[in-house]
Amino acid sequence: SASVSPGTADPKDNCAVASVSGSRADGGALQGSYPIGVTAITWTVTDASGNTASATQYVTVRDNEAPTLTVPADFSVNATSPTGAAVPFAVSAVDNVGVTLVSCDPASGSNFKVGSTLVSCFASDAAGNRSTKTFNVSVTAVGPQLVSLMQYLLALNLPNGMNNPLVNQLLAVGDGSVPQSCTKMGDFVSMLGKKDSNLTDAQYSWMLNEATRIMNVMACAPYSSSGQSMVKRRAPGFGH
């Protein structure tokens, strides 16, 4: 709605004017808020002899204000599979009248490939006013995930007898493209299990979760505690 002062009718008569009155079609007050759209006001004038005349005034309220759209800042997530990661995000919009549609491309929850993807979002209202915004989603590949895992491991300052073998396995993985990558990650997980008495439960769980996700991204066969070698399944874009 909008606050409107419609003025008043200006009658002229050969005799004295007795009264002038205005009536809104929607029954609202003349000096009040008018809804979006067209509101008719009927003005009636009466002279001293009881003669009357009327005229109609139309008040039009237009919605020219676009919705206010809020999108996330650019952010990064780790790939969780050879094809990237399903990425949820939240966008919102408010409007002086009402938002009719909010949409993004790609949509929240879509699978984003490794690398940077531009997300375009828009919000519109019933009057056709529209706002648009964009942000970037970066999906991190195997290499940076391995670096993050190694940095975490080194920051623990574990005894060399535990630290060095674990680091060596991660170094042998490289960027995940070499043939022995899956085997070396399996060896890393196996060593964690054998040496977990030197780790807190939280430290062990964090590194195990990181290693498991990295193996999923490299399309490794499920890890087997029996010590069997793992074989990398063929996955487009990851070392093939």
List keywords for this structure.
32% strand; alpha+beta; four-stranded mixed sheet; 240 residues; three-stranded antiparallel sheet; disordered C terminus; rod-shaped; 25% helix
Q: Which structural class fits the helix and strand makeup?
A: alpha+beta
**What is the spatial order of strands in the main beta sheet?**
7-13-12-10
**Could you tell me the strand content as a percent range?**
25-35%
Provide a count of the helices: 4
Largest sheet: 4 strands, mixed
Describe the global form: rod-shaped
Mean pLDDT score, rounded?
Answer: 89
Written as H for each helix and E for each strand, in order along the chain, the element string is EEEEEEEEEEEEEHHHH
- Gyration radius (Cα, Å) is 35 Å
Between the first and last Cα atoms, what is the distance in angstroms? 62 Å
| Helix proportion range | 10-25%
Strand tally is: 13
Q: Low-confidence stretches at least 5 residues in length (pLDDT < 50)?
A: 226-240
